[in-house]
Write a structure and sequence with these properties.
This protein is α+β, with helices and mostly antiparallel strands and 175 residues long. The protein contains 5 helices and 8 strands. The mean pLDDT is 97. The chain binds coenzyme A (COA). Coenzyme A is lined by residues 34, 37-38, 97-99, 104-110, 133, 137-140, 142-143. Residues 11-175 form the N-acetyltransferase domain.
Length: 175
């Protein structure tokens, strides 16, 4: 299914377009603090971000990859991104998210991902979603708990394309 436009009280979630690349780069892709607990590494070159956006554009019609740009409804400013995708190793759908630093702490991630989960349940018929985060990153764990996820077990948690390994936690949400 084509990634649809979703809406919450304060946010618009829409598929990316190529014109987003500069804002994506400035908002989070060039920031090592945002990348620290992500599987990707931060970008030091806008061309890496352009390639990333192009890769996302190729997945817009995919049935196992749904990624949104998260924007402020009021200002139309790009705040971050969230996704739900089929994690092949586990054979389960998993959520992921990050915001640019200046948007942290306003409850935006929880608000955006609640709508993503509603879409996953009602439109995709998904019955179970997994989530993982580094123990050193409690803000992400808080988001999962606020979304209704339940802690399952401790796991190794790879970041920076496998270059950094942290202690992590795995969660499940039954829908
Ligand atoms: C994790 C992240 C997405 C959270 O986004 P957010 O919009 O600020 O999240 P929310 O505001 O919805 O909720 C964050 C919660 O964590 C809490 N929190 C923030 N920093 C914290 C910390 N260091 N320790 C404990 N709790 C923390 C907040 O108080 C809030 O809880 P509350 O609602 O009970 O007050 C954001 O910090 C981010 O983009 N981080 C970098 C990328 C990343 O780590 N992504 C997740 C990888 S698994």
């Amino acid at each position: 299914m084509k990634t649809p436009i979703l809406e919450t009280d304060r946010l618009i979630l829409r598929p990316f377009c190529l014109e987003d690349a500069q804002e994506v780069f400035e908002c989070w892709e060039s920031d090592p603090d945002v990348a620290k607990y992500m599987f990707w590494s931060s970008h030091n070159d806008i061309n890496k971000t352009i390639s990333w956006v192009k890769k996302e554009l190729r997945k817009i019609d995919s049935d196992d990859w749904y990624r949104w740009a998260i924007l402020s409804k009021e200002t139309r400013e790009l705040l971050g991104t969230g996704l739900i995708y089929l994690e092949e190793e586990y054979g389960k759908f998993e959520i992921g998210y990050n915001l640019g630093k200046k948007a942290w702490g306003f409850g935006y991630t929880t608000e955006a991902m609640q709508e993503v989960i509603k879409f996953a349940k009602e439109e995709l018929g998904i019955k179970e979603i997994m989530g993982r985060h580094a123990k050193e990153n409690p803000a992400s764990g808080k988001v999962m708990v606020k979304l209704g996820f339940t802690y399952i077990k401790d796991i190794p948690y790879e970041c920076s394309r496998g270059k950094n390994l942290y202690a992590g936690k795995e969660y499940i949400l039954k829908l």
